[in-house]
What we know:
The chain is an alpha/beta fold. It contains seven helices and seven strands; from the N terminus they run H-H-H-E-E-E-H-E-H-E-H-E-E-H.
Amino acid sequence: MSLTGLPLLITIGVIAAGAAVGTARTWRRHGRWQALTRPVAVLLTEVLALLAVGLAVNRAEGFYPTWGDLLPAGVARHDTDPTRPGRLDRWITSRAGAAPTTPVAFPWHPPRGGRWPVTATPTVVVPADYPQHPTRRYPVIAVLADHATGAGEATAARAVQADTGPVIVVFTHLRPTAAPTVLTEALPAGLARDLRVTSHSWALIAPADLAGLAGAVVRAAPTRYPALALLDDAPEPGGVAVPADLPATATVAVIGAGTHQPGRPADRLPTALRWACRQTPAPLGGPAPLIPPPPQAGSSTGGR
Length: 304
């Protein structure tokens, strides 16, 4: 049985209920052994009840999607393909249902994510067709979420994906003091393990106070993050300075007052998400290469 499947949860729940009923009905029938059997029966019932609650929480939050995740770190897991992506695929499918029509949002607990400098648990939104195409790999939009993007982020991502196309959106909630390697190494490694993602042509969205971090990320990983959207939440234009020395291949948009992408502050995250979706390619099928082809000599590059 799957660790996050309904059969296991229902089985443990029924056993726990049966243990509770059995304990109540035989409470006065233990005779001279009641000093031993009563505590054992109560303890067994409590353990089963806690196990059922734990399975329900794990099913909802996805802390341990597989049995192998219960093993301590460093213990070898008997996996026929340990590099196979999509560790959360089965759990996402169970959350989406038989005929998913809307994107699935969930709090993401990446490997070693407890060491990331975050203000909140990262949120992942996968497209509605993710469970239906198990061989596809999807591009990613990484959002450096903070006060400018926090409210209704999953709702905005769902609406944008319904309008534009299938991408995976990750709200990282990183602090301004985060090192660029969190986005250039740790985040891609965690996503590649848990989901089916491409290794290039992602997009990055950052608020004004994280523009410096976003610029460092694009400079360090220009192939993975060729598109950058900066959110200007100032009421007047000119509140965000585009990071200097970005690669010539980088495409940058400023979403805010007085720019070519205006809108109210509450509308700027959806606007940025739509722009970022247009910069990412379509999902790749299984046989497709996961690295971009080398640039052709004399080819034009994206502007800022």
